[in-house]
Amino acid sequence: MTAKIKAGVIGVGYLGRFHAEKYAALPEVDLVGVADLNPERAREMAAALNTRAFTDYLEMLPLVEAVSVAVPTTSHFSVVQDCLEKDVQVLVEKPLAVTAPEAEALVDLARARGRLLMVGHLERFNSAMEELRAKVTRPAFIESHRLSFYKERGIDVDVVLDLMIHDLDHVLSLVASPVQEIRAAGVSVLTEKIDLANVRLEFADGCTANLTASRMSFKSMRKFRLFQPEAYLSVDFEARELTVASRKEGALGPIPGVVLETKRFPQEDVLFKEIANFVAAVQKREEPRVRGEDGQAALALALEIIANMRTAKV
To answer: Which residues does residue 228 pair with via DSSP β-bridges, in sequence order?
Structure first.
């Protein structure tokens, strides 16, 4: 019988508490403890999940093999670095770090220590997106809209790092070609950071991606569309639908010669799937679905887009 993975969670605020609940629900995991600077929050979470509370995560590290890091982004580098130096496997919420050099240093450290570093780009585990990914051949044009109501959470960073980075990760994982040109625009409306952003990415192979993200919308929208030779693929994350339009001679649909298929997916626990993938990677000593290098690439592109916006304003 395989020994249980001893796991912990660092930071049990809004996101971290969900991580702790998922670990506690996995039979192959022993949730050793939760750590948070807020003693009351740590105690409440520990009591609810029958585990130990820590206010100093360094005291927990010798007791665990793997952790989720769900602290504020500004603390990602120092916390993840401490974990890797103690030879602990890490799943860290996105974005991987604040700066490109920090992200590079963490990826290099994980490689040097032979540890897993997984980044929580959650939507890689959405079933509709998983099926879209399996149907992609040669992307020619990609469009995404990620519009959200204003929330206090996440406003310490630009909307590119808060929301758009999900779609940047999708695009980078689907287009096997380097970005050649970036044209971006962004505005601050409700915060001192960029609240509304649009970017056009042109790739060396001719593919173009047009991405929009906003956290000041009066309606919520999360849609991703991809066009390729012979087919159009679209995911509506909120409706949990995948639509595929493909050419087929003799087809009698809304467009002659085109077959239109829509598949709806049941409600699912995407975070549970993500954490289960991390735990399986730890057990089998294999790469997780979203590697540190993937998180590093998404962050680097996001920061380049933000820099492009700032330059455009000068």
So the answer is: 231
